[in-house]
């Protein structure tokens, strides 16, 4: 029997990302797991209002979403532990830019360069709704058809209730393939 545990936010795990934005000539970074998909053409990045990076994103209307792999976790965790208003986080990662406005972490296997089109505010949070201007993937982390291969990307996951990082697991089956297996029985 299920027990009602209240209005607990329980849609976890989520991918761990480092959000980047250009603060003048240098980037700043923060760790974010509250990212999501809105339809097939927009993404959402939700940040607590006090984050230093929020004002930069609102000014530039640009951000990057850098997927975190296990070997990036120490620096990524530090990006979420330090305040950008008190510490210069620009040297946490080696980075490059394709457009002069969006910092891409070189070590990240997948980065989405985004433009902010809307900011949705809730109590204590600003959610940046973005279009995807470009997705950059390491060649060794793609399928033969040129799509991201998440078995090779191995993104780190985060679960909020216990504040733990998790690894991705095994493939359980192909999406929308179970209907045919049911019909065979």
From TrEMBL:
Q: Which InterPro entries match?
A: Flavin_Rdtase-like_dom (IPR002563), Flavoredoxin (IPR052174), Split_barrel_FMN-bd (IPR012349)
**Record-annotated Flavin reductase like domain positions:** 9-144
UniProt keyword annotations, A-Z: Flavoprotein
Its transmembrane ranges are none
Kindly list the cofactors needed: FMN
* PANTHER family reported in the protein's UniProt record: FLAVOREDOXIN, FLAVOREDOXIN-RELATED-RELATED
Protein name in the entry: Conserved protein of DIM6/NTAB family
Q: Which organism is it from?
A: Enterocloster clostridioformis
Ranked from the top, the taxonomy reads: Bacteria, Bacillati, Bacillota, Clostridia, Lachnospirales
Designated gene of the protein: flr_2
């Amino acid at each position: 029997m299920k027990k009602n545990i209240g209005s607990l936010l329980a849609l976890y795990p989520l991918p761990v990302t480092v959000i980047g934005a250009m603060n003048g000539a240098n980037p700043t970074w923060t760790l974010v797991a509250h990212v999501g998909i809105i339809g097939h053409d927009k993404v959402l990045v939700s940040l607590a209002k006090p984050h230093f990076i929020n004002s930069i994103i609102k000014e530039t209307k640009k951000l990057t979403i850098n997927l975190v792999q296990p070997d990036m976790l120490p620096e990524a965790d530090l990006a979420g532990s330090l305040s950008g208003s008190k510490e210069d986080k620009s040297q946490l990662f080696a980075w490059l830019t394709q457009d002069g406005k969006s910092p891409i972490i070189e070590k990240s296997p997948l980065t989405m360069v985004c433009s902010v089109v809307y900011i949705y505010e809730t109590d204590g949070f600003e959610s940046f709704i973005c279009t995807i201007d470009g997705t950059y993937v390491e060649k060794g982390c793609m399928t033969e058809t040129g799509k991201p291969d998440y078995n090779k990307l191995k993104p780190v996951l985060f679960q909020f209730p216990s504040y733990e990082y998790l690894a991705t697991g095994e493939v359980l089956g192909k999406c929308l393939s179970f209907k045919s297996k049911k019909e065979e029985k």
